[in-house]
């Protein structure tokens, strides 16, 4: 379904089995809602988020491209999340997976202004799909369409904001013993300790060469998010905590307690494409009941 939002921009709604659904804002090409069988919202979007240019939408799954982070003359996390995407009316023929209940293909190409800050032609195709079982997948295909032979390099992240009942009751499994760059300690390299990660203060870490699956366990909700990534070596884990939360005008002061970002990414080693080459990066999310024994 295509729906006009209050901000006058368009969003798309994918309907799954029972009460499953996904909402996508054409502004940013950004998933802003993913609901389970019971209609429960699984992603975090700030109550103070704005939904129209020029600021990005605070929450859901922002697409960070052609850069993750802040360097050079590009805006923070690149321009893809600050642009109006369009529905791709003639997507390349791809095998339709019977496990998919509904999907949409979006496309982004650089504007004249984009080419001034990032002088490369590209086609960025994004397939967002809702599975029969309520799982959500995002598949990005980025092609270098430069006609003058120039390769280009970029960094990338699916800046995924999960909704959690209480951050102090959340554990992340799968990143133990991994090396990471700590953004709040001058991007210095450390090695993670040997058991599940818990949260008691601001966290902003880029785990390097992280495993393809990471689990986010919400104790109170007895729910586990399983994050599966392909083509994306790294994983960013971020919670702003109280001080940083207060400093963000599009983020409620106490909202850090109910969100966690786990972001499949390519940060440490940029991706390079020669003209004609295409990169594929995939994110698959499922939310499953956690079989829980106390003190686990
Ligand atoms: O996801 C980690 C991070 O790079 C943090 O350093 C923090 O800046 C966060 O992204 C939010 O960035 P944004 O541009 O969405 O405010």
How is this structure best described in words?
The chain has a single domain, classed as Beta-galactosidase, Chain A, domain 5. It contains two helices and 20 strands. It has helices at residues 112-117, 241-247, and strands spanning 2-4, 10-15, 21-25, 30-35, 63-64, 86-87, 100-108, 122-131, 136-144, 152-158, 161-163, 170-173, 179-182, 188-191, 203-207, 213-218, 223-230, 234-239, 259-273, 278-289. The strands form three sheets. Strands 5, 10, 11, 13, 14, 15, 18 and 19 form an eight-stranded antiparallel beta sheet that branches. Mean pLDDT is 95; it is low at 292-296. Bound molecules: 6-O-phosphono-beta-D-tagatofuranose. The site of 6-O-phosphono-beta-D-tagatofuranose has 10 residues, from strand 18 and strand 19. 6-O-phosphono-beta-D-tagatofuranose is lined by residues 69, 76-77, 159, 183, 204, 236, 238, 261, 263.
Give a nutshell description of this structure:
This protein is mainly beta and 296 residues long.
């Amino acid at each position: 379904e295509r729906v006009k939002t209050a901000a006058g921009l368009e969003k798309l709604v994918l309907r799954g089995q029972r009460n499953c659904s996904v909402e996508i804002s054409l502004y940013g090409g950004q998933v802003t809602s993913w609901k389970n069988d019971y209609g429960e919202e699984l992603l975090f979007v700030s109550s103070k988020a704005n939904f129209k240019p020029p600021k990005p939408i605070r929450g859901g799954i922002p697409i960070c491209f052609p850069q993750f982070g802040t360097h050079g003359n590009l805006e923070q996390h690149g321009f893809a999340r600050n642009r109006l995407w369009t529905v791709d009316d003639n997507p390349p023929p791809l095998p339709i997976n019977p496990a998919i209940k509904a999907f949409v293909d979006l496309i982004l190409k650089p504007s004249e202004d984009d080419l001034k800050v990032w002088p490369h032609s590209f086609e960025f195709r994004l397939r967002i799909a809702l599975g029969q079982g309520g799982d959500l997948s995002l598949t990005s295909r980025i092609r270098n369409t430069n006609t003058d032979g120039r390769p280009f390099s970029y960094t990338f992240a699916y800046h995924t904001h999960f909704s959690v009942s209480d951050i102090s009751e959340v554990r992340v499994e799968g990143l133990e013993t991994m090396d990471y760059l700590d953004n709040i300690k001058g991007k210095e390299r450390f090695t993670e300790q040997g058991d599940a990660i818990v949260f008691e203060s601001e966290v902003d870490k880029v785990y390097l060469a992280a495993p393809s699956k990471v689990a986010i366990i919400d104790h109170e909700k007895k729910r586990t998010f399983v994050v599966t990534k392909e083509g994306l070596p790294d994983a960013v884990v971020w919670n702003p905590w109280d001080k940083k939360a207060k400093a963000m005008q599009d983020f409620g002061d106490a909202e850090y307690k109910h969100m966690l970002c786990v972001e499949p990414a390519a940060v440490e080693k940029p991706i390079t494409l020669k003209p004609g080459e295409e990169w594929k990066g995939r994110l698959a999310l499922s939310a499953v009941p956690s079989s829980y024994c106390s003190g686990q």
